[in-house]
User: What shape does this take?
Amino acid sequence: MKTPEIIVSGKSNGEGIVLRYRTARGTDIFGLAVPNIYSNTEWDLGPTWCYLIAGRETSLIDTGRFGNYAVLESMLRSTGKVFSDIDRIILTHSHEDHDGNLAEILPSIKGEIWAHSIYRQMISYHPDIKDGARHPELPGSCRHCIMPEKFRSSTCVQYHQRRSLVDIDFAIDSDQRRPGDSLSFMFTPGHSPDAICVVFEGEVIFTGDTLLPGITPHPTLSGAFEANRRILPDSYSYENTVYGLINYIKSLDKLAGLTPQPTAIFPGHRLFYNDGFNLIHSLYGRAGEIIRFHIDRCRDILRIIDAKPAGLDGIAFQHFPASSLVGAGKSMARDEVMAHVEVMEKCGDVCWIGENRDIVQSTGSNNFLNVIGAYLQDKGK
Ligand SMILES: [Zn+2]
Assistant: This one.
């Protein structure tokens, strides 16, 4: 893709940057890098990139992390727009670094809010449905929150409560295009059960967290399906098609199969990092790289437990560098290992042993290579 033009400069990780990209049909797209709390930590995602499509209609994709209303407003002004110019806000998924500020913007918006149909269930509370959820008292998006208690601050609670009051005007269901519209949607669950990618004029795709340069998003756990199936819309509650690593890989495969392939790829994080652009030049190629990354991670987990069966923490300790295992990184690493173990267990490559069934042992097979590999096919080298 051609390099976007920086119209407001920012920090070396991109924070504060406003950029402009002009499509072949002459529509201006602005990227707004809103500060993110994880910046400058071991699990640094960099800022959240929100995008403004300044076409015949004005669409804002994602609203950044909670607490950045004023930042978003001033970034928007640098594009020549104000909140009341926005015809619609589209949310890529229900994570706080992507739909923060939404509740605060709403009073100034005349336009509509669009999100996947599962999004409604993610922002609302379902305290009566416990079903083994780690935190049934939190909204749908956080019933499986892995963050240690100290990370669940009062701002978090405030954000959830305000967000739960938001009304969705248009619920996107599966892959969808509205007649005559230059926007279409791809349902890409896995990192979040309600994740969507937004395609514009066939040339541009906004990938949210589903496809990022340089890093891979955390997959959800397929185990979260049982805890959440009764909060999902009926059509998603029979069979798990929205949680876990394998569903995430299916979403990557779907992106790789999109025809025509968009040539301008705008991710939710890391578009600019370490003082330079991190442009993704091929949707298909990057999807293949990420699938290969997960194959390698499974392979390494098998190598570790082949030497000696281990629990999730023990595997994480051997698989990740020590610098990733500080603070919340420890629970993230553990869940990341679990997401891979779930797939390999389903494939018959590992089983749980020990008195508490908390030790992972390999069975000697590596069927995962065929199961995940089937989605790799010939996605580049
Ligand atoms: Zn994110």
